[in-house]
Each structure stands twice: as structure tokens, then as C-alpha cells.
Amino acid sequence: MDEIIIQNHCIGSNTRPFIIAEMSGNHNQSLDRALAIVEAAAKMGVQALKLQTYTADTMTLNIEDGEFFISDSNSLWNGSSLYKLYQQAYTPWEWHKPIFDRCRELGIIGFSSPFDETAVDFLEELDVPCYKIASFEMTDLPLIRKVATTGKPMIISTGMANLAEIDESVRTAREAGCKDIILLKCTSTYPANPENSNISTIPHMQGLFNCQVGLSDHTMGSGVAVASVALGATVIEKHFTLSRADGGVDSTFSLEPAEMALLVSESERAWQALGKINYGPTKAEKPSLTFRRSLYVVEDMQAGDTFTEKNVRAIRPGLGLAPKYLEMVLGKKAAMPIKRGTPVNWTLL
């Protein structure tokens, strides 16, 4: 699982988590808002911003009933046809270049999820540095093959996918020339519940496919994403908006700027905390050893007096013998006069 470099950004276990802000349709069909989202994402400290490249016609058919109409009371998009939903959510292709240009100006990576081969050709014209395959497209092997032939890193979400489907996608990508693959654990419900996230799958997936694994997270808040870092996630993708109150197709489960900043900082803290297997005091802890308990004389003693539980106690600080030696000290005679507050050592006996 070698580190992957994308536009001078390193992705791997030896660097802080790579945070992707997913704009999706949260621009609400305003280029000015889209550019404001880019600026807010960069200001909050993310490394990348992702778009989705499709049109309603490349996604589905303009049919208003049957399987082309969403009739699910639990869905955020209940009561809409697929075609109208994608019309509302899509990012106009002519916006891609100004959005990516703004990303470059602000030092973050701009890239996208293509949803068909024409989108790949278009994104290649814009020289995107990497690609994302959405969960619902990860079984579209011709699309994966097309993306893989670019030779650029590929991030693949695995929502709903069983092991065989993931294996097939990874094999297809590798056989078509993709050397750098990052899989994302994902739960394809919107929003997702933490209890359905199963992020314990992350290290298992790493071992099976010998690649980096991250999390595409649709839960509310950042707790699941931060926890994923402890399990080895090197990439975190979260939907992002300026304000959930402004609405938008994905606003309900998107982070606002202050929340994204918290995710960036807390995921980095989680990564820093991983460290290595360690027992014994760290360098930073060594001064604290002084404040362990140790044996002290707590009453003035004369030479020849007997050490008893009344005149010797285990107290702080830790400059005397360790408390485990108390039984060996009790009953011994003082070799010299000893003042109250003297740490016990073998020369006093």
C-alpha cells in the first residue's frame, strides 16, 4: 500500500487524512455559489473538492412514472422523477473549468466523478489529476476500464457492493492500467446511520485488496469519519455546503464550513494519536514520573528508631523507593536521624 501522490498531495498512512469536500448539487444551480463553496472548502483546510460530471440524459430517461419515479417516503427525493432530480442536481459542464481553476488558485485538488464515457473524455480535456467512481457506478466495468486507461489514480466507492463485485472492479481497473487505486467504504443511504456504517470493514478491505482504503461518509456529523481514521482510513469524503438552511439536493447530510473545519482538525488528531505500539513512558511523560507515589518518612526519626506504618507512607512525589518495597522497609532500623519529608532509600536503613 504505497503512498499515492496527486498534485503534490501525499495520500497514505504516514500523512494526515486526505479530506475531500463533495459539492454534488449543493451549488443550487449558481456558479457564484459553486465558487463560494470552493473557497469555503479551501479555507476549512480540505485537500480536494469533487464534482459530479453528468447530465440528466446521460443518467436516465425522461419518464415520469414506474421505476423512473421515486416513490419512497423514506427518501429525501420522494416525489421526483429521476430525470428531474438529475436536472436539478447536475453541475453544468461549462462550470467545470472555472471551478477547477479556482481550486488550483487556492492550492486544493479539483476532480470529479464521471458517470459515462463522454464525461471521461470531457474531464481528460480539463486534465483532471484523478477520478472518482461513485458507488452506483462501481459495477459499470466499461466505465471503470475507460477511466483506468487514463493511467490516473482512481478512487472507487463501494456502497452496496459485495466482495465479488469489488474484486471485479479492482481487477478490471488494474488490468486496464490503473496502478493507484483507493477504495472507499460507503453506505449508500442518504443520510446513513452510524450503526449501518460497519467501518470495521476498512482494515479487512485493505488486507484483501492490498490498497489504501478510506470512507465516503453520508452520516450526520463527523464522528464516524474520525473513528475511521483509527481503523486505517487514509481518505475521507464528505458532502459540503455553505448552509443546510439554503437547501439543495444533498444539503441534509452535508457538512457546513465550521463542521468541515472540525472534521479536518479532529481527523488529523486521530491520525496523530495512532502512533506506534508503545509501552513505558514516552519522552514527554518522563518528567511526570516524579509525581508517582514513593516511600517517604512522614515523622522525624532518630537513629535506631524502627520504620513503621506510622512513620513511613507511600505518598507523592516519586523520589523515594517504590511502594512495592514497603514490606521490606517496615521493621528495619534507621541508620541515622531522618527528618520528616525525606524520601526513603536503602542508605537510611
Could you explain how this protein is built, in words?
The protein has helices at residues 31-44, 56-59, 82-89, 93-105, 117-125, 141-148, 163-175, 201-209, 223-230, 257-274, 326-329, and strands at 4-6, 9-11, 18-22, 48-53, 109-114, 131-133, 154-157, 181-186, 212-217, 235-239, 294-297, 312-315, 342-343. By secondary structure, it is an alpha/beta fold. It folds into 2 domains: 12-54 and 90-274, TIM Barrel; 286-348, Type Iii Antifreeze Protein Isoform Hplc 12 (Alpha-Beta Complex). It has an 8-stranded parallel β-sheet with strand order 5-4-3-10-9-8-7-6. Helix 6 (141-148) links the parallel strand 6 (131-133) and strand 7 (154-157). Helix 1 runs parallel beside helix 10 (257-274) and helix 9 (223-230) packs parallel to helix 10. The chain is elongated. The N and C termini lie far apart (60 Å). The mean pLDDT is 96.
